[in-house]
Amino acid sequence: MASSISTHFFFLITLPTFVIFVFSGYATAQLSPTFYARNCPNFQNIVRNGMNQAVRSDRRMGASILRLFFHDCFVNGCDASILLDDTATFTGEQNAFANRNSARGFEVIDSIKANVEAACSGTVSCADILALAARDGVVLLGGPSWTVSFGRRDARTASQTQANNDIPSPFSDLATLTSNFAAKGLNARDMTALSGAHTIGFAQCFTFRNRIYNATNIDPAFATTRRATCPATGGDSNLAPFDATQNNFDNNYYRALVARRGLLRSDQELFNNGAQDALVRTYSTNPAAFRADFAAAMVKLSNLSPLTGTNGEIRRNCGVVN
Ligand code: HEM
Ligand SMILES: *[C@@H]1O[C@H](CO)[C@@H](O)[C@H](O)[C@H]1NC(C)=O
Prior knowledge:
Helix content is 50%, strand content 2%. The protein is mainly α. It folds into 2 domains: 43-167, Peroxidase, domain 1, CATH 1.10.520.10; 174-298, Peroxidase, domain 2, CATH 1.10.420.10. A two-stranded antiparallel ribbon has the order 1-2. The chain is globular and about 55 Å long. Residues 209-210, 213-214, 232 line the site of 2-acetamido-2-deoxy-beta-D-glucopyranose.
């Protein structure tokens, strides 16, 4: 009798637990916060100093590096594929729709990488540098912190097609955005929290023009203000901040959504009489809830199918395969 009970317990508890470990371990098996503790103990200080300097000379850089990391992770995982430069014989991700004339901050990662190489050459991946730089940028702008695990390796390839397919469009509706994130194992709550990254940084006129001239779910005074610097034709690259405090990582993005002052269509879709309205309202009045959920979702984003072990390489120069 006793042995039959324990056998049942094995199948009811041990076996399912084992299965969960195998599948979740697949993505994060070898990542660890202490991965470089022995071989590059100063790595985290070098990245923090580099981001400090970059954000001091250009506050927007915290936002730009965070977006670079998001666009890296959404395309074949967090493998620094976005950092590979196009050449005559290689087409990477930098000229995909979402990145061309838009993704910025490459020179900041290159400069940090040069300093890391000087301290411990051939040891730290560009993918890990980008993951940590994104976290440090958020912290420098007043956002939450989270523990970054390391051990990602750098891709030897990149895919413009995959970037065009997988990076969400600012013209999308809620259902499409939700399925874009679900395809990466991120649920709607993760999506709504991660979109709060738009509490920092800017967007170009062509990404929100249709909304400010044609949408009905927009505060008219806000539309008028935005039209002043984003004409119906021309001025495609004119910048507007996502919220009124674009250099502070706060919850004003969600307050803007509740006021129907979302900049992109994809922003306002999170508060447009749909399933995410309640969560947006929560974040708009509870900054601590937003900070906690954002940090948790960033850890999930950071763990998207990394190359580990002997896969990929440690690039010497982030823009070029070794
Ligand atoms: C929900 C789907 C998303 C869409 C459709 C979207 C789209 C966009 C667009 C169109 C821009 C402006 C780019 C330009 O005009 O050059 C932008 C900027 C930005 N995005 Fe997103 N985004 C999304 C989610 C995210 C996520 C998940 C993050 C990070 C966790 C993020 C971080 C940023 C940041 C920080 C900026 C400002 C960058 C800067 O000022 O340089 N976005 N996004
Ligand atoms: C407004 O919508 C119409 C009809 O879809 C479109 O032709 C026009 O270009 C839009 N206007 C702007 C400024 O985007």
